[in-house]
Amino acid sequence: xxxxxxxxxxxxxxxxxxxxxxxxxxxxxxxxxxxxxxxxxxxxxxxxxxxxxxxxxxxxxxxxxxxxxxxxxxxxxxxxxxxxxxxxxxxxxxxxxxxxxxxxxxxxxxxxxxxxxxxxxxxxxxxxxxxxxxxxxxxxxxxxxxxxxxxxxxxxxxxxxxxxxxxxxxxxxxxxxxxxxxxxxxxxxxxxxxxxxxxxxxxxxxxxxxxxxxxxxxxxxxxxxxxxxxxxxxxxxxxxxxxxxxx
Length: 247
Prior knowledge:
Elements: H1 5-29, H2 32-88, H3 94-176, H4 180-192, E1 198-202, E2 205-206, H5 215-223, E3 230-231, E4 238-241
Parallel strand pairs: 1-4
Antiparallel strand pairs: 1-2, 3-4
Domain C4-type zinc ribbon: 205-239
Coiled coil: 37-177
Protein name: C4-type zinc ribbon domain-containing protein
């Protein structure tokens, strides 16, 4: 392949911009804020799940408390009716009187037991409320931390996009100056060689694979026509002769 020496040197400028684009794209993918946000999202999910469990527990306790209070009220009202009957003197039979008194005593014990249940449920509610409040604070703190991290990521992404846009425009300008056949070869070699399709020959060494050329290879490079597109024998990248090639 033949190409003007100036076009070959320009290929090095294109390689430099492409390397910068690769670096910027890698930075975009590897922003630490990405991993931080993933960790915060996982933590938020866990906290919200725990909060949902506590809120469900509180709803269950609320139903349990209302039922226990209804049971207390029913027992209290029944005991009150029995007491009114007893005090009104409506019961004359000693046997019936004894039965009524026994029922009133039994209802008093039952009411006491139910009131203990209400108190126990209220204690559990208080404990659950404290846990809900603590979890709600943790969720709020994690959400604030996530918002801060998201803002930092957005700022970093915007800055990188600006740099990417600038580098992309520079690349387009340089690529327009390079012949299509040389550009196509460079693209293929970039895909095959970890993003490096062209390298300079400096002081007898290929800047692509960092290996020194043999005496015979240097002699071939020295005698090759200036417009001949030469390749490194080791890595097969386009090898561009420059002022400090050492030829």
